[in-house]
Amino acid sequence: xxxxxxxxxxxYSNMMAEVIGDEHGITFEEIEGIRxxxxxxxxxxxxxxxxxxxxxxNLPYQEGIGEIKCVVDDLRxxxxxxxxLGIGGSALGGRALIAALGHPFHNLLPAEVRxxxxxxxxxxxDPDTITGLLDVLDLSQTVVNVISKSGSTIETLSHxxxxxxxxxxxxxxxxxxxxxxxxxxxxxxxxxxAEEEGLVSFSTPPGVEGRFSVLTxxxxxxxxxxxxxxxxxxxxxxxxxxxxxEEELEANPALLNAALQYLAHVKKVKGISVMMPYAxxxxxxADWYRQLWAESxxxxxxxxxxxxxxxxxxxxxxxxxxxxSQLQLYLEGPYDKxxxxxxxxxFSHFLKIPEGGSWGEETAYLEGKSLNELMxxxxxxxxxxxxxNSRSNCTIYLKELNPRTLGGLxxxxxxxxAFAGGLYGINPFDQPAVEEGKRLTCGxxxxxxxxxxxxxxxxxxxxxxxxxxxx
Length: 471
Ligand code: PA5
Hints:
Number of domains: 2
Shape: globular
Low-confidence stretches: none
CATH superfamily of the largest domain: Glucose-6-phosphate isomerase like protein, domain 1
Bound molecules: 5-phosphoarabinonic acid
Largest sheet: 6 strands, mixed
Strand content: 5-15%
Strand order of the largest sheet: 1-2-13-12-8-11
CATH class of the largest domain: Alpha Beta
Helix content: 40-55%
Order of helices and strands: EEHHHEHEHEHEHEHHHEHEEEHEHEHHH
């Protein structure tokens, strides 16, 4: 049971009852049972797309790529380092792109061979990390790309003000030439600052939430800095868009996988969704996906406002590393997981274990084998043993990792998330809990208009301070 196109396929056989049995596998009757609902979700998404309510779906056809390339060309020559400031959806996509398509040790390469500046993403406010980063930066050769859709996220603004002051101290008025802002086209403090100071800026498309924004300047600008073919990413997404428009469940990989993951959760009680790439380059893609799936589908209320408390729990793992860390649980623990492997048909390099490099007969079987072969053997063995033990799993397979296949993969997983939201009956495009967290933090930090939130937490903390450390 495979959905297949030229460069990518989804093998879902090992989620099906035919292969892993009725107790844990999805039956054909269950697929039939969801067909109408999935069709309805698909029609609704197409309809909303027609009404311009889901702008992320049209990102493969966006204009403005030339502008990104122009800015990057201007800055690349003089920038030794790019520091990206952002959090959540404003960081994870760009980071995933660079990890997937850049050199695995990009930042450590000598400047003459490196494709573009060193790139650091700051998506936490740990003072030790930031101080540590400053130790390795030459501010006179650093470009800062600050990314925040709202333009008011406290963590990003805090980083940014720190860097503004440092750049100003080092470069004087020229700091303005070292900052690129990515934010809402008209609202928010960052947009105001960009306009007042005449900074180079890009817009986050209105209506595209952070976690759906990897194929906007949020992800494309940092990617372009290290020479990633950003048009190729969009071409791949456009190709995937064709499949995701298909009405027929089995012809539409995003709808099909949304339906399978949903059925595994609600019919077979598999509320944990593990994404396990067998390639280091896709590790950050699993991290990006974890946010996409969690923030989009974890909801208290359905679209009618009823309390539902739904959402699968996404977990990221890495093959083969986590075979020595998580596999024990996946294989012998509770039957509460679906594992999605991501596999590559080929790696960019072929690495052979040298002949004559082993010590004696016991290890001689490794001689002349390749690490590529070992990776494939381990993935297939893991798939086999999970399946044999009726552990639900599927594989997303990319013939190779390149801008087209990666762009297609991002788009596929985003559309899948939109369809899954429809099946769960929730709105995958809001994040009320994240917004609440932002309000509470503003209250704690004394932002005007948020005093009530601050007082509430302080009162709560005071009430909790009843325990004394025993002396
Ligand atoms: O996906 C989302 O919408 C969130 O994760 C945001 O990206 C995150 O909270 C950061 O918000 P902003 O881009 O407004 O700074």
